[in-house]
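Researcher: Let's continue the batch. This sequence belongs to Phosphatase NudJ, and it's 170 residues. Same format as the previous ones, please.
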Amino acid sequence: MTEVWKPSVTVAAIIEREGRFLMIEEQASDGLRLNQPAGHLDEGEALTHAVVREALEESAHDFEPTALIGMYMSRNVSSSRAGADTTYLRFAFAGKLGEKHDLPLDTGIVRTLWMTRDEIAACTERHRSPLVLRCIDDYLSGQRAPLSLLYTDASVTTAAVKEAIGVAHG
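Model: Same format as before. Here are the structure tokens for Phosphatase NudJ:
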């Protein structure tokens, strides 16, 4: 049987305040990188829940998604992970920054910082993904779609809840 190709699904929070964007600096396998608060969709999780969780884990801030900026695909062939080839499907969200909490940042996150679009554009070699600047540019152009475009069937979250409490799947 042939292996089925599957992209890695990620979410990103595009958070702007007074012309600056909330960015994270993280230690990646290929060095110190810049990204938005972002990460992988977990099993049993809706996309909007994933971006709220990732923003909190990586920036220690609450985040309320208000719109979908876009859906993006990119491919990475890692020079530091023996040529691992991964295609990413990224869902980027605009939203409101909420309360800052006294929480440790996720493993690998060095710090959060606020940067202008030009500052971000000036260091593309440090971006975690080629999508970092593209998402900001789409945000700045006013690109928005309603969150109602995203639908998560109850079967997605129901299975995760059952597994979490130890109920056998039938």
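Researcher: Any comment?
Model: Strands lie at 8-14, 16-17, 20-28, 31-35, 38-40, 61-77, 85-100, 109-115.
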